[in-house]
Amino acid sequence: MPLSASEPYDLAVIGAGSAGLAGAVTAGELGLSVALLDTSAQTGGQFYRTPAPALGAVRPEALHHDWSAYTDLRRRLARSDVVRHLPGHHVWSVTKDEEEGAGVGAGDGLWAVHAVTGADGGGERPVRVRARAVLLATGACERQLPFPGWTLPGVVGAGGAQAMLKSGLVLPGRQIVVAGSGPLLLAVASSLAAAGAQVPAVVEASGYLRYARHPRALATNPHKAAEALLHGAALLWHRVRVRVRSAVTEVHGTDQVEAVTVTRLDRDWRPVPGSGRRIVCDALAVGHGLVPQIELATTLGCATRPLSDGTRALTLDDLQETSVRGLWAAGETGGVGGAQLARVEGELAAVAVAARILGRPAHGGRVRELGRRRDRMRAFADAMAAVHAPGPGWPRWLTDDTAVCRCEEVTAGRVREAIEDLGARDARTVKLLTRAGMGWCQGRMCGAAVACLAARGQPAEPPADRRPFATPVPLSALAVLDAPDTPFVTEPEGSADAPGGHTTTASGPDASPGDG
Amino acid sequence: MARTPAELVGAQPGPPFRITFDGRAVTALPGQSVAAALWGAGILAWRTTRGGGRPRGAFCGIGQCYDCLATINGEPNRRACLVPARPGDAVTTQEGHGRAALGI
Ligand code: FES
Questions:
Q1: Of ligand 1's atoms, which has the minimum distance to the CA of residue B58?
Q2: pLDDT tens track of chain A, all 516 residues?
Q3: Which value, in Å, is the radius of gyration of the alpha carbons in chain B?
Q4: Is the Cβ pair B62, A160 closer than 8 Å?
Q5: CA–CA separation, A296 vs A145, rounded Å?
Q6: Which of B9, B50, B78 sits opposite A58 (nearest CB)?
Q7: Are the C-beta atoms of residues A114 and A489 closer than 8 Å to each other?
Q8: Under a CB-based contact definition with an 8 Å cutoff, are residues B30 and B86 in contact?
Q9: Which one of A66, A146, A188, B98 is separated from A11 by 20 to 30 angstroms, measured CA to CA?
């Protein structure tokens, strides 16, 4: 660990989920000093999201899969005295100073990771963590496709329902339909049912038989098939019906969900006329796969690659380095592939960073083995993306008054007008003409849908998000940046002075969670 | 088979406490976010939109969508899915951008 705030860490890891945790503890064990930043108060990311300690969950593993993998990482973190966990840190930008610290290791120059603190970033305490290398492990967020009624209270993200259940032990209703596309739906439905909800149906827009088109990826990833079987068995046990090639095309209710209409889809995801069935429920958990969260990297100019589900992931080399030297990435940022893949990639990245910084070759056998496992799981992830890619016919679910942008309340009619009458051809132009994507969430909820609509049935070019801020930042935090003499605080929450106050050394109380 | 999430994980929380939502008492458990406490009381909407005045509550559950904005102890635009509930918190429905009182 650096002896003073002015001394940089060897590695800053952004995100304490499976990839980030694995990367941080491995790097620590290889002798690097590491800062592990995460927005949440606890490690685990979304996959291993756990009830707050005050909720006293005796069996948190009841909500999880592969729990021992997480407890192992957590134990290694608690044992480490060189990995500093910085919870409640919302990273809004990563910058590089080419001049500073030239020749100190990974790249040429030093990285600065800028964050604001607090549960929702409202702590207004600006933090700057400097490091020789950065590992981006920011995961993914859920992709949403709009449909009539999806803004009604009681309609929640499938991942959102899962997150609120895992952290707060609450459900959005008693009878919850789960709909959308992707393997997450089965996991969500089985955990909701295990927690006491009735799940009248799981509605999947693709067909699982499509996996049969990828026999090699299936055969080399038996754990994935086993996982699906496990969820499938749980759903059978809870008498949950799975409807494939179908979608929720309308939500009914005035102030809250009363029922949904489930419609059969053709192979292009166009609704089959006359096939709609009403299902009574009081909540709908919906999501259409996951989108890699890569805006910190794209702002720095990192190269990206299109995935077969219409999203974009970072382009990475064999050792997980992005196209920008000194910036590594692991887990969903390189394409959505699950927690096990994320752990392997986090470890591989850490080995590579350590080799670069310490200036000695990485253990070849270990690198080869990790690389092999990564390639096998990446192949499955790519097959999975292809199976659940949204079909070009989904915009037929929309009526003219369906809200597409939730924040700015921009309807499908106005988006169509921008495209058909005003000639918009991409999400950016639609945004300028309609304000879709200009609200609070900055297009995170509607960006994918708007890009699809603008592409008019052609494969959509995923929006290349370049936002200067990855999270809202109080002006006071920015003001501090302009004052060159104001020192930055690098201590975890609770041990620092007032906002923008004195520099404190990083040798204070250790912030590792004592939860081992 | 578990009937509630708390039963599923064998939760043994500390003593519950009270917050209010638009003046009405709501029971929260230590460690829950404001959004979780409201969901626990069956409340799914605590904001009305700027344009259409439509009700909204938590959607993404992880701080991404900003649909869950609430006014907490008089401070608007807090993400209820991230902010931990504290004893005595007064949560009120946020109207529009939450600055109605300022007339902007
Ligand atoms: S529910 Fe999306 S930000 Fe809180």
A1: 1
A2: 454 456 899 999 999 999 999 999 999 999 999 999 999 999 999 999 999 999 999 999 999 989 999 999 999 999 999 999 999 999 999 999 876 655 555 556 899 999 999 888 776 688 999 999 999 999 999 999 999 999 999 999 999 999 999 999 999 999 999 999 998 999 999 999 999 999 999 999 998 777 778 888 877 887 777 777 778 777 878 888 899 999 999 999 999 999 999 999 999 999 999 999 999 999 999 999 999 999 999 999 999 999 988 889 999 999 999 999 999 999 999 999 999 999 999 999 999 999 999 998 888 899 999 999 999 999 989 888 888 899 999 999 999 999 999 999 999 999 999 998 998 888 888 988 999 988 888 888 988 889 888 888 776 665 555 566 667 666 666 666 654 433 344 444 333 333 333 333 333 333 333 333
A3: 14
A4: yes
A5: 24
A6: B9
A7: no
A8: no
A9: A66
Residue at token pair 């981006």: A136
Number of helices and strands in chain A (H, E): 13, 21
| Residue in chain A nearest B29 by alpha carbon | A55
Q: DSSP per residue over A63-129, as a string? A: G-SSHHHHHHHHHHHHH-SSEEEETTEEEEEEEEESSTTTTSSSSSSEEEEEEEESTTSTT--EEEE
Tell whether ligand 1 has an atom less than 6 A from the beta carbon of residue B47: no
Q: How far, in Å, from the CA of A42 to the mean position of ligand 1?
A: 18
Nearest CA in chain B to A410: B51
Per-position DSSP letters for A270-306, written without gaps between them: PBPTT--EEEE-SEEEEEE-EEE--HHHHHTT--EEE
pTM of the complete model: 0.89
Contact A441, A428 (CB under 8 A): no
For residue A324 the two structure tokens come to 């920008």
- Which of B3, B14, B63 comes nearest A196 by C-beta? B3
- For A158, the closest chain B residue by CA position comes to B60
Nearest residue to B35 via CA among B1, B74, B3, B67 = B67
Q: Which atom of ligand 1 is nearest to the CA of B81?
A: 4
Shortest Cα distance, chain A CAs vs residue B69, angstroms: 10
ipTM here: 0.95
DSSP-assigned letter for residue A272: P
* Disruptive mutation site among B38, B65, B89 for chain A (greatest number of A CBs within 10 Å): B65
| Structural contact between residues A2 and A33, judged by C-beta atoms closer than 8 angstroms | yes
Those residues whose C-beta lies under 8 Å from the C-beta of residue B86, and which sit 6 or more positions away, are B19
Could you tell me if A185 and A286 are in contact, meaning their C-beta atoms sit under 8 angstroms apart? no
Is residue A125 a contact partner of residue A496, using CB atoms and an 8 Å limit? yes
Count of C-beta atoms within a 10 Å radius of residue A165? 28
Per-residue DSSP letter, A180:
E
- What are the tokens at A223? 């754990």
With CB atoms and an 8 Å threshold, state whether A55 touches B83. Answer: no
